[in-house]
Amino acid sequence: MIDDNIDDKHKIDSPQLYSPSLAPAMSDGYMGSSLVVPTEQMSDYHQPLTDGFARRLTYLRLSITDFCNFRCEYCLPNGYQGKRSDDELSISEIATLVRGFAQVGTKKVRITGGEPSIRRDVVEIIETIKQTDGIETVAMTSNGYKLGKHIANWQAAGLDQLNISMDSFDAATFHKMTGFDTLPQILADMDILLETTDIKLKINSVLMAETAFENLVTAIDYVKDRQVTYRFIEFMQTSDNSDLFFLLSMLSLILSLITC
């Protein structure tokens, strides 16, 4: 039962949504008046995406396929198993997803896989993401397979950054690690990219004990005359490389005990 005699100042107004990011900060132990956003204005307001430490999340990694054509011994030593998925994200689904993330503060999107370049509509995907309001940078990670045929189209579509996964500068070692004898062509294609586009190039190399020193020495020589960033990345366990990961982890532990 509602008491009609309640003062106006105690009456409950229409519902309003509270926004923590709009609440006034506490100063000298005093909290100011609460600030609320009327419901009718909320359609134009999107609270920034943050983590548990209140850091804004502005970078999205978007996998557009789980299929990869390489057979890297540390990742897919037996190659991709089974039939390629037929329910990969469509262009319209990607557009909706990226638009939603852009509304909550995403500024950079990295396209990943599997190997994203195997999708025939990858150029349209790059264009779709690049044309989304709020997205400033579109990047992609690739194994560089047939890179030369894609460079011009990726540049025209708006690709800003490209990471090439390349774990050795030695053709024989690269062939052994990936199952593909394509290193000379990838190196030539990367030079074409550097000479003909403004796409920023980065090379990722998985840190493996047997190739680390060779890679570091060769990489220093390679990057000194090129606008390329080179970095080692961590060897990570997957469902396909558990035996190798366990073996290398044990070897690392044994070596660390020997040297102590």
What is the rounded Rg? 25 Å
Order of helices and strands: EEEHEHEHEHHEHEH
Give the spatial strand order of the biggest sheet: 3-4-5-6-7-8
In DSSP terms (H or I, runs of 4 or more residues), the helix count works out at: 7
Unreliable residue runs: 1-37
Shape: globular
SSE diagram, text form:
Elements: E1 16-18, E2 36-38, E3 59-63, H1 91-103, E4 108-112, H2 122-130, E5 137-142, H3 147-157, E6 161-165, H4 171-178, H5 183-196, E7 200-206, H6 212-223, E8 228-233, H7 242-259
Parallel strand pairs: 3-4, 4-5, 5-6, 6-7, 7-8
Antiparallel strand pairs: 1-2
Quick tags:
globular, TIM Barrel, single chain, 260 residues, alpha/beta, 7 helices, 33% helix
Explain this structure to me?
By secondary structure, the protein is an alpha/beta fold. The protein has a single domain (47-259), classed as TIM Barrel (Alpha-Beta Barrel), CATH 3.20.20.70. It is built from 7 helices and 8 strands; from the N terminus they run E-E-E-H-E-H-E-H-E-H-H-E-H-E-H. Strands 3-4-5-6-7-8 form a 6-stranded parallel sheet. Helix 2 links the parallel strand 4 and strand 5 (137-142). It is globular, with a radius of gyration of 25 Å.
